[in-house]
Write a structure and sequence with these properties.
Blueprint (H helix, E strand, L loop, with lengths): L55 E4 L7 E2 L2 H14 L15 E3 L4 E4 L4 E4 L8 E6 L1 E3 L8 H15 L8 H5 L10 E4 L3 E7 L2 E6 L2 H12 L4 H5 L1 E5 L13 E9 L10 H20 L5 E8 L11 H4 L6 H9 L2 H7 L4 H22 L2 H4 L3 E7 L1 H11 L3 H19 L4 H28 L13 E7 L3 H7 L19 E8 L23 E2 L30 H6 L25 H7 L5 H20 L5 H12 L22 E3 L8 H7 L8 H11 L1 H14 L1
Parallel strand pairs: 12-13, 12-14, 14-15, 15-16, 16-18, 17-18
Antiparallel strand pairs: 1-2, 1-6, 3-4, 4-5, 5-6, 7-11, 8-9, 9-10, 10-11
Helix pairs in contact: 6-21, 10-12, 17-18
GO molecular function, one term: metal ion binding
Family: Belongs to the PA-PLA1 family.
GO cellular component, one term: cytoplasm
């Protein structure tokens, strides 16, 4: 610290501290020791001004404790600070000092105003930053900058150029009992005593502290050990440019769903939670890789005007709070189903995704050169809007195609006179010609109205969380195919991999696999591994299994169940889980409530809960219920799959890749309570963080393994 003051030995970590500022009668091993990156660096022998590497800068978010910047960031902030003229005494050129990019490029620090702010999103609260010179023993928290500057100035005035003790390690083990303060400094509520150049203590001047100090001193304790807090000059670890974050090889755009009007900063907090959990997982499982994944929030809702305040003006005053909450949340679903505002929502998200990508590439020019990848994590309605942007789905174009088809059919089917037929043909040709002219005109104007929205990047992985996308696709007429390919709902040329993550009790989430192959309604989703599972089986090696091959009493009449062999298409569904009702039976009770999206979230919630009571009744009615219809349809369309006694399927007709992934339920959680909380519980889940990184790092790990083999 003072050159040698903090050099209390070699190599002990921060975790070795347990002194807690309790005094000086501790052994040398109990204190954190200054880590010297170079190892054999010579100690300074005289007191001098602190070097840039000994100062440490800190930031504070949400009024919590001060957190240190990593060495790479701190050193660059300190150099910018010195360029301004340290302590405000120099002439300096404040305008010439550029903001310093910190925290993996997500934030910038304005040294002049001592504030930090995010680069990729807006934040009302600025994050204060502080220059640390003197630190509290044990916690290594910095003293407030004002006090720190006064102590540093006093220290240099009194001791600058003085010789430091030869061996600090010997000195530290001696108690300070017999020593009087050789110098003292009075602060507003505290005072600082120097017992020697290397022994500095901070004392509180509050009355209670004085009484405690007098009593303990009379009992024979030293002044320092009884109430003083030991201070260190210079941080426990020196800042180096080598202490820098790994390069970003993969960026993840995190897209919110409904309700952001109600809480605009929520997606930023949620993304921060996801980023923090991902960092923990990276440190534990992926520390051998030289790259890392960065999460960026996509806040697309707050910039949209939509109807202005029309909806607010027509809202009645009674139970206003509840109505405002619904207007700010469920109203987004109604906006999206409105032909008037749908394009505005789509365009808002598309522009924000492209803006963020362009900004990231401009600040990280090597990202594209080195083949950086982009994935999207979407939540709730955000999944549907993201899907529509990627695929360019447009209800207006769909309507035009339907009209054209009807006209063609009308020409073919109806009997009509020669004159009528000639006029209709002429009308048809004229309309076709008009459409061609309109299209050419749109091309000339370079209008984006008729073009599908385009992203500036290819999506590597599209992760849906708590997604109603399957309901929207089913309502658009998508029916199960026979190929087992993801291309049936999302072409691989647009997005390499689609993954649908959901909590088993999330009332807004639906399965996607039965939209590709019908019999997957009776195959359980893949269970996401718990974060702390030792040697989990890789997801691609997990075999599909039946939902529940055991008999459920109310599932079918005895005559049927006795004769039918248990196969994915005939075996009853799992008790209290109703995936057996195929997502494609839109007209039936299971999805009807969710389909009436205009009724808001309430309809979605209750339709999902309604399954548990509605399903057994419809099953009991035999072949007229939804299960009966499904059996008939499946028997005609696809033969039952062979099965094995273990409950796993024989590999005949399977999906190329599994798409539905289900979080494991907690052992003690209430299903009805978790149905309320599960839709927003994805952000801080370590299980999900590990799942996301497993797929995003998969290729990196494969390439690393391959290069290692090539080297061998």
């Amino acid at each position: 610290g003072t050159g040698g003051e903090g050099s209390e030995g070699e190599g002990a970590g921060l975790g070795s501290s347990d002194s807690g500022g309790s005094g000086f009668s501790l052994a040398a091993t109990a204190l954190p020791e200054r880590r010297r990156p170079g190892g054999g660096r010579p100690r300074y022998e005289v007191v001098r001004e602190l070097g840039a590497e000994e100062v440490r800068w800190f930031y504070r978010e949400d009024r919590k404790t001060w957190k240190p910047f990593i060495g790479y960031d701190s050193l660059r902030i300190e150099l910018a600070f010195r360029a301004l003229g340290s302590g405000g005494g120099g002439a300096g050129e404040p305008a010439a000092v550029e903001p310093v990019c910190v925290r993996s490029g997500l934030y910038e620090v304005d040294v002049a105003s001592a504030e930090s702010y995010p680069v990729y999103w807006n934040q009302t609260e600025k994050i204060p930053v502080m220059r640390g010179q003197w630190f509290i023993d044990g916690t290594w928290q910095p003293l407030e900058e004002e006090e720190s500057n006064l102590i540093e100035q006093e220290h240099l005035n009194r001791f600058k150029g003085q010789q430091l003790q030869e061996s600090f390690d010997m000195e530290i083990s001696k108690p300070v009992d017999g020593k009087e303060a050789i110098h003292s400094l009075k602060l507003s509520r505290n005072h600082v005593d120097w017992h020697s150049v290397d022994e500095v203590y901070l004392y509180s001047d509050a009355t209670t502290s004085k009484i405690a100090r007098t009593v303990t001193q009379k009992l024979g304790f030293s002044k320092a050990s009884s109430s003083g807090t030991r201070l260190h000059r210079g941080y426990v670890e020196e800042a180096t440019l080598e202490d820098k974050p790994p390069q970003t090889s993969h960026i993840v755009f995190v897209v919110h769903g409904i309700g952001q009007k109600m809480d605009q900063g929520r997606i930023i907090k949620n993304t921060a939670m996801m980023r923090d959990t991902a960092r923990k997982v990276e440190e534990k499982y992926f520390s051998n890789l030289a790259t890392h994944v960065e999460f960026l929030p996509v806040e697309w809702r707050s910039k949209l005007t939509l109807d202005g305040d029309t909806v607010d003006s027509i809202t009645p005053d009674k139970v206003r709070g509840l109505r405002d909450m619904l207007n700010s949340s469920a109203m987004d679903i109604m906006y999206y189903t409105s032909p008037l505002y749908r394009d505005e929502l789509v365009k808002g998200l598309q522009q924000e995704l492209n803006r963020l990508y362009s900004l990231f590439c401009s600040r990280n020019p090597e990202f594209e050169e080195k083949g950086g990848k982009v994935s999207i994590v979407s939540h709730s309605l955000g999944c549907v809007i993201t899907y529509d942007i990627m695929t360019g789905w447009n209800p207006v174009r769909l309507y035009e195609q339907l009209l054209q088809k009807e006209e063609e059919e009308e020409l073919e089917e109806r009997w009509m006179s020669y004159e009528e037929q000639r006029l209709l043909e002429e009308l048809y040709i004229t309309k076709q010609r008009l459409r061609e002219i309109e299209e050419r005109l749109h091309e000339l104007k370079a209008s984006t109205i008729s073009k599908p929205p385009v992203l500036k990047f290819k999506v590597e992985n599209f992760f849906c969380m708590g997604s109603p996308l399957a309901v929207f696709l089913a309502l658009r007429g998508i029916r199960p195919g026979t190929s087992g390919s993801q291309d049936h709902i999302l072409p691989r040329r647009i997005c390499n991999r689609l993954l649908n993550i959901f909590h088993p009790t999330d009332p807004v989430a639906y399965r996607l696999e039965p939209l590709i192959l019908k019999h997957y309604s009776n195959i359980s989703p893949v269970q996401i591994h718990w974060y702390n599972t030792a040697n989990p089986l890789p997801y691609e090696h997990m075999k599909p299994s039946f939902l529940n091959p055991t008999k459920e009493p109310t599932s079918a009449p005895d005559t049927e169940s006795a004769s039918a062999a248990p196969s994915p298409t005939t075996s009853p569904v799992m008790v209290r889980r109703h995936y057996g009702e195929s997502i494609t039976n839109i007209g039936k009770a299971s999805i009807l409530g969710a389909a009436s999206i205009g009724k808001g979230l309430g309809g979605m919630l209750f339709s999902r809960f309604g399954r548990s009571s509605a399903a057994p009744q419809t099953m009991e009615t035999g072949k007229d219920g939804p299960e009966g219809d499904e059996k008939k349809a499946t028997t005609v369309g696809t033969p039952p799959l062979p099965h094995s006694s273990s409950g796993f399927l024989e590999p005949t007709v399977e999906l190329e890749h599994r798409i539905d992934f289900e979080l494991r339920e907690g052992l003690v959680e209430s299903r009805y309570w978790s149905a309320v909380t599960s839709h927003t519980a994805y952000w801080s889940s370590l299980d999900i963080a590990l799942f996301l990184l497993t797929f995003m790092y998969k290729q990196d790990q494969e390439e690393t393994d391959k290069s290692n083999l090539d080297t061998i």
